[in-house]
Amino acid sequence: MLTRSLAVFIVGLNCAVAAPKPLFESKLITPGTPRHSVDIDVDLSGAKELFLVVTDGGDGFNCDWADWAEPRLVLADGKEQKLTEIEWKSASSQWGKTRVNASAGGTTLRSAGADIAFGIGTHANSVIEFILPAGAKKFKARGALDEGGTRQGKGAGSVVFQVFTESPGPVVGKDGGGGSAAGHEPADAVAGFDIHPELTVQLFASEPMMQSPSSIDIDARGRVWVCEVVNYRSHNGERKEGDRILILEDTDHDGKADKSTVFHQGHDVDSAHGICVLGNRVIISCGDEVFSLYDDNGDDMADRKEVMFTKIGGAQHDHGIHAFHFGPDGRLYFNFGNAGKQLCDKAGNLITDIHGVKCTNQNNLPYQEGMVFRCELDGSNVELLAWNFRNNWEVAVDSFGTMWQSDNDDDGNKGVRINYVMEFGNYGYKDEKTGAGWQTPRIGMETEIPLRHWHQNDPGVIPNMLFTGAGSPTGMMVYEGDLLPSIFKG
To answer: Strands 425-426 and 383-389: what pairing?
Structure first.
């Protein structure tokens, strides 16, 4: 039971390790830095390991593509060896992949208008660990911003390069933001929140009870259902048994989960991005499918599976299919971002909605990019409600049937928005008639990028309700109760 002063939340946590001081730490590197880079020359005498670290500049890690350009070791005999010829022990990055002779996004290494001869591409926040060859004396390189980030908008990309010869521990951005902040013990979790003075926040569940939650729902008994995701993108396949759907329960009513039940585990829920619990039915949005898992005998384990929609596209992509929500009219509301391509029935046939519109954004102008739908509980009578979003998440429906959602992931253009979703509305991510992107010159082109991003001057485009700038909110709910303070009502 929720009280007036309690908000329950779930977080995925890791343990923190005290970090040593770096042998080298750059100033903040931005598109205003000459050559978009910094020269690095570090003494490695006596060192056995090398850790190359990139952190965000304190403004989040959007567009922070970074390159270790021309990285090389000076050996005991004075000869140089390219670091790209040595296999690293481990590598991680907040986005994309760490790559040899390619950027985090897989493109050619380029910085400040010039190709990079050889190097390692990554993305803040990042750690790359090497075992050094015997006698290594120096490490030389340039720390450079990659054009994959800097070309995404004015001021895009800001990083700090660091070099260590012992493990740096958890990586944190310049001001503690945008990455894996220090102090990740469960006991420290609440301290990271800015909380309204009339509310309190309490930790409900953490590791090791569950890992990496991507979506949650709460059933009629107050239990929290979790899509627990490990097998996502570069980590796909790490959990050999497949990802899990968990039920977290507070059996002693102290506000903390003390029981965890595995409702389902398997590769069919790898990287699930949405869950909706309706009695004994659990609707899962995963990969390019939507299906229901049923608990027929009440033992909190899935007994059967029933497919609803297929061939959506966007598998292993956060711009794909998102969670379903139960509306006041007894129908289901849902959306997918622009990695979603279409909506097909369980037999794989493209669905035509009740108004005769094909449910696809492929060669089907003006219906394009991210979309919002509703349907009956059994998946019938599909209705395409709105379109032309980028990565619209979690359509929330109030008691009057009004819809709201966030449209996010602006890649540094500070164009994230909150939508009032008007039925049959065009929301302007691409040109309605040509499908051109927001950077293509046009009549009435907005001077400000956040407005230009959504074609706000184009005739017929629904106006944005609210801009939230940078960042990518991926959840929303409408609160219509009276237990919370008045500022939160409505």
So the answer is: parallel
